[in-house]
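Appendix B, Record 12. Input sequence as logged:
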Amino acid sequence: MFDDGRFYLEIQSHGIEGEDAVNAGLIKMSKDLGIPLVATNDCHYLKRDHASAHDVLLCIQTGKNLSDTNRMRFDTDQVYLKSSEEMAELFWEVPAALAAFYPDLGVVRTGRFH
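Logged structural output:
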């Protein structure tokens, strides 16, 4: 089921508390065990400025009001479809985690990828 090349450790960066520590642990695990990394982004809407509309939709779906303090909400506006350039900026320290899914990164203009 998990032949060589068919199992990855996934890292993400949404600005959520504790995420950096989890990613550091996954990067270390990848190095220690030889399991490749893949950088992904949880995607619930297309553009960053859609976050407030998504919040309203969550309220509609769960029968809550925006003013309800005890309701489902996302603590970030970072769950949108990020460009390969944005992903490169977030994960410049682990380029191999991007290579399989963002092949155009060889020409990213961040100055850190080549």
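Residues 44-78 form one domain.
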